[in-house]
Amino acid sequence: QAFFCLLLCIPWGSSCPPSCQCTEWAGAKAVLCSSKHLEEIPKDIPRDVVFLKLDANSITRIPSNAFRHLSHLEEIDLSRNAIEQIDRAAFKGVAAGLRTLDLSGNRIRSIPKEALLALRAKLRLANNPWHCECALQEVLWEARLDPDSVRDITCHTAPREEYVGKPLLQVLDAGANFCSVRQRTMDVAMFITMFGWFAMVIVYVICYVRHNREDSCRHRDYLRSLPSAQARAE
């Protein structure tokens, strides 16, 4: 144990973000930036890092391509920050190799499913003020969630008051389906759109028939006003 502690204290020669500690653990590079009052993800993280700890900071957003240059990255700890926004391409470039991603204890209400469903990593999403919706349900069904933290994914807000304060897994087990609600909304919107187009076609046909009828009446009246062939012969 003392040997591994010693390894953690050995800095390595490549550049290291200010206020962070760059060490080597079990033959792999680690960047430790825990509790450093960071407000954003450092830009100068070494490319060969394997373990990245950014927990207990004040990071509010994970922008697109935030880790794209870190092709060796296997574990990211972003727990206990103030993250509210995660871009769709936040983990682009590391999705295949990432094994663990900890986003627990943040301020995340919703997340684009595209940001997480491409990941093979084990996800920790507990203790966030989630708005229970279809995207979160799809993440729960399709992503690799840490089984020990699934029950701590709680509905802070939800379409129905009875779901508020309950674990999302419990709500889904009770038969709720947030994606079907969205599907019904889309179906209603499509029906209204189709009805609008149909009404426009009917109005156009009626106007077209009425216009033709008026033209026919005017033409008939015009023909009646002309002298007859017999009158011309006389």
TrEMBL record:
Superkingdom of origin: Eukaryota
Membrane topology recorded in Swiss-Prot or TrEMBL: Single-pass membrane protein
InterPro entries on file: Leu-rich_rpt, Leu-rich_rpt_typical-subtyp, LRR_dom_sf, LRR_TM_domain-containing, LRRNT
Signal sequence interval, chain numbering: 1-22
Residue ranges of every copy of the LRRNT domain listed in the record: 15-51
SMART domains: LRR_TYP, LRRNT
Entry keyword Repeat: yes
Localization of this protein: Membrane
Keywords in alphabetical order: Leucine-rich repeat, Membrane, Repeat, Signal, Transmembrane, Transmembrane helix
Keyword Endoplasmic reticulum in annotation: no
GO cellular component: plasma membrane
Family: Belongs to the LRRC3 family.
Name of the molecule in the record: Leucine-rich repeat-containing protein 3
